2-hydroxyhexa-2,4-dienoate hydratase
Amino acid sequence: MLSPDTVAQIAAELAEADRTHAVIQRITARYPEATVEDSYAIQGVWRDTQIAAGRRLVGRKIGLTSKAMQQATGITEPDYGVMFDDTVYESGAEIPVDHFSNVRIEVELAFVLKHPLEGPDCTLEDALAAIDYAVPALEVLNSHIELEGRTIVDTISDNAAYGAMVLGDVHKRPDEIDLRWVPGVLSRNGEIEETGVAAGVLGHPATGVAWLANKFHQHGARLEAGEVILAGSFTRPMWVSRGDAVLCDYGPMGTITCRFV
């Protein structure tokens, strides 16, 4: 376990890396004894400093929920981070590359809650009952920690590598569509790069919402009505650079476009 001073120091390093769009050395390279509990403590200190600086929390992201993402990262369990209001874009947005240390894109569904959701025994059915609607989303990954050799401790500390999200226009209640079969066809500059289906996320994309509620219970918290839950990617991450145009086709849930400038 790391000392409170070390936790605060690492959180400050990550806040500075976020401000300057830098990449720092792996935490586990410097502190091999660091645990998952330490990493959530680091994330929590970082989150609280951002809120104190005036940022408004709008929801949570769940990461590493699909075999595709676990294989891509070498990490074998889900994680979560927080999302602030200044990181949310609408379809058609132009997104400045300079806001990030690096940029990768994932294909996801997001869920907006109409009721609070609390563990420790939350099920998929409980999660579906608490969801107001699903909306297609792209997640912009932004890693402030060197990628090579990182573990889940590094990823969680870095707010689960969350950078931003781009939301689509189509909203569907869970009883309007079989969410497992929502497709994602991700293109960059007119070329298809990744494809997937939402069932790749733990068998059902809302399963991650139940997982998060149960994980939150371990930390003495619950998910609140109105929160946006970014539920995990069903494709591998796609690297993008300045000038790239991105389009994702979600079939019955429409399309999302954005451009990186």
Q: What stands out?
A: The first strand starts at residue 57 and ends at 63. Helices lie at 4-20, 27-30, 36-52, 67-73, 124-130, 152-157, 207-218.
